[in-house]
Amino acid sequence: MAHTEIERGAPFCDNPDCALHVRVRDAIVEGGGNWLTLPDGRIFGRNRFGDTLLCDACGTRRGPVRLASGSFQVANRRRARQ
User: Using an 8 Å Cβ cutoff, are 12 and 5 in contact?
Assistant: First the structure.
């Protein structure tokens, strides 16, 4: 279950070259979940691609993600039911 892996200590993105290869316990991370907001406002989700959990950018081969600097939030974001 991808939504519980980050709380178990798995990195947000399994690609070690990606800036989103971070864990909840890392100092630059606040929160937990399957959505991530960077200081510049970019938002990334993550998903299972085969047997690997990757951020959207790496999973669709647009990544790896690069950061200028700063901390970011990993957060659960859910759509409100209509």
Answer: no
User: What residues does each domain of the chain span?
Assistant: 2-75
3-class secondary structure per residue, 41-66: CCEEEEEEECCEEEEHHHHCCCCCCC
Over the stretch 22-75, which tens digit does the pLDDT of each residue have? 887 777 777 777 888 887 788 888 888 888 889 999 999 988 988 776 666 665
Residue 16 per-residue DSSP state: T
- Is the pTM higher than 0.85? The answer reads no
- How many C-beta atoms lie closer than 10 Å to residue 34's C-beta? 21
Q: Which of 81, 70, 1, 69 is nearest to 33 (CA)?
A: 1
